[in-house]
Amino acid sequence: MDKLIIEGGKPLKGTINISGAKNAALPIMAASLLTDDTCVINNVPALRDVDTMVKILRALETKVDRKKGNTVVIKGPCGKTRAIYNLVSTMRASVCVLGPLVAKKHVAEVSFPGGCIIGPRPIDLHLKGLEGLGVEIKIKSGYIIAKARKLKGAKIYLGGHFGSSVLATANTMMAATLAEGVTIIENAACEPEIVDLANFLISMGAKIAGHSTPTIRIKGVRRLHGTNYNIIPDRVEAGTYMLAGAITGGEVFLKNAKPAHFLAVIDKLRECGVKITEFKDGVKVKGLVASSIKPATVTTLPYPGFPTDMQAQMMSALCLADGISVITEKIYPERFIHVSELGRMGAHIFLEGPNAIIRGVKALSGADVMASDLRASAGLVLAGLVAKGKTQIHRIYHLDRGYEKLDNKLSNLGAKIWREKE
Fold this sequence. Notes:
The protein is an alpha/beta fold. The chain has helices at about 20-30, 50-60, 85-90, 100-105, 125-130, 165-175, 190-205, 235-245, 265-270, 310-320, 340-345, 375-385, 395-400, 405-410, and strands at about 1-5, 15, 40, 65, 70-75, 80-85, 105-110, 135-140, 145, 155, 180-185, 205-210, 215-220, 225-230, 250-255, 275-280, 280-285, 295-300, 325-330, 350, 355-360, 370, 390-395, 415-420.
């Protein structure tokens, strides 16, 4: 197992290429199960989660070939319909194979998914969406067993306790492409990754309208065909590196980043005094010295609100703001495991329910810290980049799940960061 070591205080300068979006690539790879033809998927990031999805698809006896240049070629048909615990339990997005399998093969057995420990993440909306299409669901020995002789279009409301669900919308939309008749998903997720999945399905011959709105309309077709498709850039990676440039007082150009995908993050950083310039081919961020960062009030919300996946990174920046900031977590109210680790670096953070009250300090100090989940890991990296002294981040396998060559990319910007074996 590796650890990251960072010597902070280096302003980041230069250009960084934003990789393909993990949260778009995973459901799109799962959607390839809907056809027996070949799907060529480009701009797929080299990540541990992508490796896991490849293993799941191969375990289903689907042919998967990873080419150079971040291209994955998937060729059906799949020979099995059981996604086993050993693979599915390591990644939340693995549940995305449920909808395509039951739509194409009329049966699926998928273990309950795993992933980061960031609070309860039920799959009730996934099951509700599929049951609305006529799928019979049973839970047995930790597996979701789904069967359907024929899927039929329906009007389905996917509202949850904390708003819409991205993966439940994905699962329902994928299954509905092969259902008989018309399906209308109300309170659908509007995230760019859902739009990308819909565009991928449309390129396969699906008939989908309203994606990017809370009401998605799908007219089922008899079959889908192969396609050649490019994944969108990763908005969370772009937001993370934007914050890295901002808090180190650097100047970074995020090549290929699409500002329309993370306007809430851009708006909040501008509120904090960070200068951000948008271009056709990317975004430039010009940072501030830590003492010049203005405090802010941040509330995480479903898209197009401030993303929960940027909460930890934003918290690291606000630890250095000149004043008191408040972050309210409305998606996963328990997603504050990183608070205690930031405290080890000298941050002053008080938790009150879903609220984190942050009193800015003049400087953070390097320390040994432990990564608890993917985005918390990124938040600790940002804190390490600006902290005085040396920071060691343990359990960084979380980072490798969602950031492609993070240490290399930061090194190219002038950061003093490297890996060592534990």
